[in-house]
Amino acid sequence: MRERPLRRCVAGSALLAATALLAVGGSTTGAAASTTGPGTVTVSPTVVTPSSSGHAVQLRYTAPASGFRNGVVKVTVPRRWSPPQVVSTSHAGYVTTTAGSLRVIHRNIRVTALTLCGGCSLTISYAKVTAPATRQVSMFLTKSAPSVGMRLRRLAVQPAVTVSPATPPPPGPYVSDTFARVVTNGWGRADVGGAYAVEKGNTADFSVDGTGGRLALRNAVYTSAEHIVALPATDALDIGATFDVSFLENVKALNPQYGGVLAGVIARFHNVNDQGNGYYRMQLVWNANNGHPQLFLRAQDDSGKSPPGHFKVEKNLGIDPTVDFPKGAPYTYHVMVQITGSNPTSVALKAWKVGATEPTAWQLTGTDTGDYGPQSAGPVGVRASADLQSAASSFLPVTSHVKIENLVVTKLP
After folding, report:
1. Cis-peptide into 84, omega within 30 deg
2. Residue 168 lies in a domain
3. Is residue 170 situated within a structural domain?
4. Percent share of the chain, pLDDT over 90
5. Helix, strand or coil for residue 324?
6. pLDDT tens-digit profile of 202-254?
7. pLDDT category of residue 170 using cuts at 50, 70 and 90
8. Residues 6 or more apart in contact with residue 46 via CB below 8 angstroms
């Protein structure tokens, strides 16, 4: 007998009900509008253990800048997850939404009559969920359309959840460097991890001052300004890393409108061709932010380009370093990053002021469902760049300096 659809209406707007990492989409124009659906999605938790139950999944959908008027969002829940339903609050898979008209047919969750202003959000709950019994990356296929009658299209980056046993990390760091040495024309040798090799940039721009690795960065287009140093003796697929980033000048005082100064780690290094498949980079950015400089977290492939066709996720942390450090430089922040999986690869990042409390949750997560970055193991390293501009393509004639301290990289199982 064919199952009849279950229907429930709730005021406002809505999205899926699943367990997923981060779905970064967005409104597009021109050719891109015909291939990707608008909007972004964030969810928690991002990782669960096999056969675990009772998960209360919260999913937040944010409309594109153009907004939604009588829009539609559809999510397909993968098999082996609790079937979504709207009948009983006491049974697994119960779906609610803060807005919109909600309908569940088999494993499809469909939200219609969805009207949202640009940047406005709604929250979906998928309650008492039981995860699959086997290790996997489960994709929750999400499609959207900004108004009824328009074709539903896949979001540029799809939400996914990793189902993986809770395995303790191997003992000891894979890379550890306190930079307790003085070196010019390079970074010398890490405490653990071998010798650094300058892969891009003038070797005279690299030095170690006894507490950290320094980089001198002449502001220019990123393909020219970026400086990269790698540890060729390392070779890893999944890693977690912690390090400190210090900005040694006041970026805000330069009154930039575009670009930024940034530093962070690279993973799965293969080349410096800037084509997208050379490495992943996970960075802290003092972003010009259209004349209002603030800290951003950013993860992307090495192309430096945005979706579609490339992987990039970022988040404005809303932090003004000059407020955190009213006495001036150095402006120092702890950073923690993680990269896991292949086909697809997922990333997670967070940052906080030295001396402050570490955020409990990741502040930025994302999944490269297009496999644009390298899906095989490679060395780890550090990248920094500066492309501050007073106007579009008018780069400030200054040299920016950043410093990396307390670098620790751990291989993840």
Report:
1. no
2. no
3. no
4. 62
5. helix
6. 999 999 999 999 999 999 998 999 999 999 999 999 999 999 999 999 999 99
7. low
8. 19, 20, 21, 22, 161, 162, 346, 348, 362, 365
pTM of the complete model beyond 0.90:
no
End-to-end Cα distance, the chain? 46
Pair (323, 400) in one structural domain? yes
pLDDT average, residue stretch 282-307: 96
Q: Which domain holds residue 333?
A: 175-411
**Short-list 250, 243, 285, 247, CA closest to 265:** 243
At residue 363, what is the residue type?
Answer: Q
110 and 252 co-located in one domain: no
Q: How confident is the model at residue 171 (pLDDT cuts 50, 70, 90)?
A: low
**183 within domain boundaries:** yes
Look up residue 357 and give its two tokens. Answer: 């409390």
Residue 305, number of CB atoms within 10 A of its CB:
16
For the chain, what is the domain count?
A: 2
**End position of a domain, from candidates 119, 142, 163:** 163
Environment class of 395 (CB within 10 Å of its CB; exposed 0-12, middle 13-18, buried 19+):
buried
Compute the distance between CA of residue 388 and CA of residue 400 in angstroms, rounded to an integer.
Answer: 9
DSSP state of 78: P
Asked whether 400 and 290 are in contact (CB, 8 A), the reply is no
* Sheet with strand 22-23: strands edge to edge: 22-23, 40-44, 55-62, 121-129, 94-97
> How many residues does the structure list for the chain?
413
Tell me if 346 is assigned to some domain: yes
Euclidean distance between CA atoms 271 and 384, whole angstroms: 16
- Distance CA(56)–CA(59), nearest Å, equals 10
What mean pLDDT comes out for the span 330-348? 96
> Are 116 and 221 in a shared domain?
no
Question: Could you tell me which residues come within 8 angstroms of residue 61 by beta carbon, excluding any fewer than 6 positions away?
Answer: 13, 14, 15, 16, 39, 40, 41, 73, 121, 122, 123, 124
